[in-house]
Amino acid sequence: VDRFLSLHFSISSGLSVAEVDAMKFLCRDKIAKRKLEEVGNGLKLFSILMEQQVIAPNKLGFLKELLQQINREDLLSLVVQFEEGELHAPDDQPDEHEKPVDVICANVGREWKKLMRELGLPEVKLDKVEAAYRYDLDEKLFQALREWQRWKGKDAKVADLIRALRGCKLNLVADRIEE
């Protein structure tokens, strides 16, 4: 699944009707009145904004502004996390299939909370991830790992991931990462 589209789905599912209406009002100078009248949810609004290239994976300023205006700092943080993931991916990183995070995401599944607790991630952060990605198990795990990396900073080590996986009896996943 495209991470950019997943971001918009996550934001849209968190918006109330009143918030979508407020965002429509703020988009009056960007979207024609007739098109705005067709908008009934966040997905439709974001689709139009993407069609008109007001927002794009590398162009999120207007989206951030909208979320700030409707006081949805929680959703704004999702956009910031997305940007950090996109902007801080150096070209010299290993192939996608070699990253420990990808191996974990592909193999841990419903044991994600157990793993995150083993890594020591606070319950508050787990609850935040759970609420933001209620219906997307893979994204929950991915975002939880990113939260752990941010929380630990330079102390976030692959060795800690392996130790935590073994602590959760996920030895095959740990072995694959060690390879």
What can you tell me about this protein's structure?
Residues 97-179 form the Death domain. This is FADD protein. GO terms for molecular function: caspase binding; death receptor binding. InterPro entries: DEATH-like_dom_sf (IPR011029), Death_dom (IPR000488), DED_dom (IPR001875), FADD (IPR016729). Residues 3-81 form the DED domain. Helices cover 67% and strands 0% of the residues. The chain contains 12 helices and no strands. It folds into 2 domains: 3-87, Death Domain, Fas; 97-178, Death Domain, Fas (Orthogonal Bundle), CATH 1.10.533.10. By secondary structure, the chain is mainly α. The radius of gyration is 18 Å and the shape is elongated. The longest helix is centred in the last third of the chain and has 16 residues, at 137-152.
Strand portion: under 5%
CATH topology (fold) name of the largest domain: Death Domain, Fas
Sheet with the most strands, sense and barrel status: none
What number of domains?
Answer: 2
Quick synopsis:
The protein has 179 residues and is mostly helical. It contains twelve helices and no strands. Pfam families: Death (PF00531), DED (PF01335).
